[in-house]
Amino acid sequence: MTAPLDTPSISELDLRALWHPLTQHKSLADSPLPLIVKGEGCYLEDAQGNRYLDAMAGLWCVNIGYGRRELAETAAAQMTELAYLAPTMTHAPGARLADRILTLLDWRGRVYFSSSGSEANEAAFKIARQYHMQAGKAGGASRYKIISRHRAYHGNTLGAMSATGQAERKIGYGPMAPGFIHIPPPYPYRAHAKLSPAEHGIACAQALEETIRYEGPETVAALLMEPIISGGGVLAPPDEYLPRVRAICDEYGVLLIFDEVVSGLGRTGELFGHWHWRVQPDIITMAKGLSSGYLPLAATAVQEHIFDAFLGEAGDLRHFRHINTFGGHPVSTAVGLRNLEIVEQEGLVENARRVGAYALTKLGALSAHPWVGDVRGRGLLLGVELVADKATKAPLGDADMLAILSRCKQAGVLLGRNGNTVPGLCNILIMAPPLVVTETEIDHIVAALAFALGER
Ligand SMILES: Cc1ncc(COP(=O)(O)O)c(C=O)c1O
Fold this sequence. Notes:
The protein is α/β, with parallel strands linked by helices. It folds into two domains: 10-64 and 347-453, Alpha-Beta Complex (Aspartate Aminotransferase, domain 1); 70-345, Type I PLP-dependent aspartate aminotransferase-like (Major domain) (Aspartate Aminotransferase, domain 2), CATH 3.40.640. It is built from 13 helices and 16 strands. A seven-stranded mixed β-sheet has the order 4-10-9-8-7-5-6, with helices on both faces. Strands 11, 12, 13, 15 and 16 form a five-stranded antiparallel β-sheet that branches. A hairpin with a 4-residue loop joins β2 and β3 (51-54). The longest helix is centred in the middle third of the chain and has 19 residues, at 197-215. The protein is globular. Bound molecules: pyridoxal-5'-phosphate (PLP). Pyridoxal-5'-phosphate binds at residues 59, 116-118, 121, 153-155, 226, 230-231, 259, 261-262, 287.
């Protein structure tokens, strides 16, 4: 069917009606966004038939790749059978997925579902605070502060934004919620030259301990952290860091919450990012890869000792007084279950580990380029920090960063960047392709980046 002549094109509708996130619209009129019409595997295709290798898996979420009929069929079947149910009731895919997540974690515990990473973190904050009020331990109700780390993103809702350690995401939206405190994360590339990576990791853990002591341990509810900072610039800690962090949290009665929204479900070459260090948190949040982005789905998983503090008598208000209309949606959870089956059946965690190691080696070969300061990552969570001067590590400026991304796009590859994060350090290119990516596709990504960097 052809559209009548006066029907506006999608690009016109986009320009006049749609407000995109993280986008300066003034420049869109001159360089409109490509109209994407199809996705398959690691590729997106626009209306002109141009193909782009999506080296960001959307927003680090399309782990099983685009165009999987299995998920479409699961969604259609579930929608026909039971399209919605209030989360105060129960249905098979929700109960099964909660059990599956706990089995994967090897936990006795409970899973609370919501629809986004931000909501999963908000639930975690409230659970942590209410836990302390009801657990009958030192501090009790006075423990409300949440410590998190500079550089890390935890979401756009006011609490999750307050926990986020990225100043550029907060300018103009303050005041932030009170009770959120930030500490520095390990950042080996820019650590003090006299410290070994291990010493740097210990020093950062020390900063946590000092902060807890200065704030008063009886006021601190939880530490929220990504095992590996993702959107903040792909910062993996030295091996000494996480075990020390766990010990400090235990010593001061502070709950440890891992935000595995990006690093969970296989991205880093382990099913969960924290498995690299075998350190157990009290609470984990996850989203993105839980449904491979096919439908909104997020979860906050807690260990049984946390859940126990919420048991009581009817009407005594000890239960978790929190609800998400779309939390544990039957269609999302059915798709989530099928998605996890595919991740397992196709060995995608192992693929992320193997192909990720290959990608790290290939990207490492670009290190001779004068702008490539550091190449790092785990599995298929990869970062390339670009500098204008290797000796001083002066970050590459905005204009050059944008030009590189644009040349990668010209070469048919969509890369990410830690844009609008912390002032002066938005100089990290990010790669997080679908976990189905092949070595040939990695070669394509690395070739595009080499082209974009050009000869210097
Ligand atoms: C580590 C991390 N946590 C939380 C969030 C928030 O997730 P959402 O955008 O689904 O609310 C994100 C989003 O990118 C994230 O990267």
